[in-house]
Amino acid sequence: MDISAVNALSYEDFVNTFGNVVEKCPVITAAVWSRRPFVSLNALEAAISDFIDELPESGKEGILRCHPDLAGRDLQRGTLTRESRQEQAGAGMDALTSGETERMARLNEDYKKRFGFPFVICARMNDKANILRQLSERCQNERAVERERGIEEVKKICRLRLQSLLLTDGANKL
Ligand SMILES: NC(=O)N[C@H]1NC(=O)NC1=O
């Protein structure tokens, strides 16, 4: 799907197509629809990024809270979104040893207790070892640093999700 096809989408089709580019935050997609027309994929991505940047700290933390834990309960119960399931599987989160699963769960809980929002990282840009290392290292940061760091990762996830949607046959048919 090229950018002119994106610009021609109705509000409903736009939200149905791009509603989960930021995990469980279709309100962001609904908001940027009014910023059409987009001159390029980059411009659509920039509109999403600007919207996020304009949010107060509580809004940014809210976005982080919409993200499922890596290798967490949703993965175990099969309740992840399609996008998140593919990303987590790609990073090997569905094939951890029981020791790694326990370590991950413990670190995720420590992180949430410290910051009040979950650890977020772009799984498609990292492997298992990297994710575990960063989870443990980032627990040491200040809350404000982690809020911004998590949001940077949300934007990376968003970029890759947008790219996949615009390059797939399914989206081409719209
Ligand atoms: N917690 C967290 O980072 N979750 C995610 N990361 C990613 O790439 N997809 C997710 O759902």
UniProtKB/TrEMBL annotation:
<comment type="function">
    <text>Catalyzes the stereoselective decarboxylation of 2-oxo-4-hydroxy-4-carboxy-5-ureidoimidazoline (OHCU) to (S)-allantoin.</text>
</comment>
<dbReference type="InterPro" id="IPR017580">
    <property type="entry name" value="OHCU_decarboxylase-1"/>
</dbReference>
<comment type="similarity">
    <text>Belongs to the OHCU decarboxylase family.</text>
</comment>
<keyword id="KW-0576">Peroxisome</keyword>
<dbReference type="GO" id="GO:0000255">
    <property type="term" value="P:allantoin metabolic process"/>
</dbReference>
<protein>
    <recommendedName>
        <fullName>2-oxo-4-hydroxy-4-carboxy-5-ureidoimidazoline decarboxylase</fullName>
        <ecNumber>4.1.1.97</ecNumber>
    </recommendedName>
</protein>
<keyword id="KW-0210">Decarboxylase</keyword>
<keyword id="KW-0659">Purine metabolism</keyword>
<dbReference type="GO" id="GO:0051997">
    <property type="term" value="F:2-oxo-4-hydroxy-4-carboxy-5-ureidoimidazoline decarboxylase activity"/>
</dbReference>
<feature type="domain" description="Oxo-4-hydroxy-4-carboxy-5-ureidoimidazoline decarboxylase">
    <location>
        <begin position="7"/>
        <end position="163"/>
    </location>
</feature>
<comment type="pathway">
    <text>Purine metabolism; urate degradation; (S)-allantoin from urate: step 3/3.</text>
</comment>
<dbReference type="Pfam" id="PF09349">
    <property type="entry name" value="OHCU_decarbox"/>
</dbReference>
<dbReference type="GO" id="GO:0006144">
    <property type="term" value="P:purine nucleobase metabolic process"/>
</dbReference>
<dbReference type="GO" id="GO:0019628">
    <property type="term" value="P:urate catabolic process"/>
</dbReference>
<dbReference type="InterPro" id="IPR036778">
    <property type="entry name" value="OHCU_decarboxylase_sf"/>
</dbReference>
<keyword id="KW-0456">Lyase</keyword>
<dbReference type="InterPro" id="IPR018020">
    <property type="entry name" value="OHCU_decarboxylase"/>
</dbReference>
<dbReference type="GO" id="GO:0005777">
    <property type="term" value="C:peroxisome"/>
</dbReference>
